[in-house]
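Quick check before the chapter quiz. The format below is the same one you will see on the exam, so make sure you can read both the input and the output lines.
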Amino acid sequence: MKRASKTLNNIGQYFLLTSLIPIMTFSVMLIGIEPLVNSGLDLFKYIGDWLRSFIGDTLKEIADLGRSILAFCIIGIVFIVVQLVFINSKNNTLIFIGNISSLIVGFVLFWIGAIPFFNAPEGSATFVTGMLFIYLGISGTIIVTGSVMFITAWFLDKFIGKPKDKVKKNFKKEV
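Here is the expected output.
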């Protein structure tokens, strides 16, 4: 059960890592839109200045949104790599810490990805929430499943023990 949970955690983490790449690409496009539009507006003398006065602040806000999304993705990648190192380590304490943090992160990702099921907005918000489910909800579900399996196996081993080991120890004592 622990091996299956480790496999599920790894699959969910890798799926999340590959899902962050298109989000990071989109954020870089948001960051680069301001200079692109401004260079296009430079071609039109008076109309370009007039349009720039209307959309200048909006372009800065779009670029700031792109920067914040990119920063969030980079922090997420670092956190995912640390979780993978903890889960795949040989130290039981680090494995347990990695699975607890994966459970929390996976539940948050699942909750964010489940937004389309709780609130059915119309228009472009449906598209955004659907993409959240695809990019975050599926991997969050896999991560939560793996973490719950590991924690269940850990508690069963801790409180119930492994019957096969006890039988082998008793058999060796008798012989």
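If your answer matched, good. The mean pLDDT is 81.
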